[in-house]
Amino acid sequence: MGAKALTKVGLTMDLSEAAVRVRVQRLIADGALQIVGVADPRVFGLNIRAIIGVSVVGDTTRVAETLSELSELVHIVTTAGRFDLILEAVVADEQSLSHLVNRQIRTIKGVQSTETWIIFRTHKENYFWGSK
After folding, report:
1. How many domains is the chain partitioned into structurally?
2. Model-level pTM?
């Protein structure tokens, strides 16, 4: 985190840049905070984002681990509800999405069914959990 950002945070909290730096370093060391860059996938030609619900027969963890090997999947979670797994995919186009779902995901042993939703527009994407 740069000095300018630390100074800005410090101003909102009435702290010095040094005090903010110490607190940020402590949060990172404790595993409570990660500082990462978030890229816009469209810049890289990845124009389609989709959510895929997956119903599994058998070992959900094994299916999730197998799915984790697919680079097009950027988020994989186990859920309690209609689907056993919810995936977020980022791909170049509809043909790539079709290949991912039909030739890769549905062929994994234990995948019973899938349902796919293409994301048209993101109305909110927030990485500031727990803050106002």
Report:
1. 2
2. 0.76
User: Strand 85-91 vs strand 73-78: parallel, antiparallel, or unpaired?
Assistant: antiparallel
**Calpha distance 103→121 (Å, rounded):** 26
Is 101 a domain residue? yes
- Residues 3 and 17: beta-carbon distance below 8 Å: yes
Which residues form the domain of 22?
1-37
Contacts 24+ apart (CB under 8 A), 98-106: 100/70, 100/72, 101/52, 104/70, 105/52, 105/54, 105/67, 105/70
Whole-Å CA distances, 91 to 9, 70, 87, 113, 129: 36, 11, 13, 20, 27
Asked if residue 47 and residue 31 are part of one domain, the reply reads: no
Pairwise CA distance, residues 83 & 80, whole Å: 7
Distance between CA atoms of residues 59 and 109, nearest Å = 10
- pLDDT tens track for 86-101: 999 999 999 999 999 9
Does 28 lie in the same domain as 50?
no
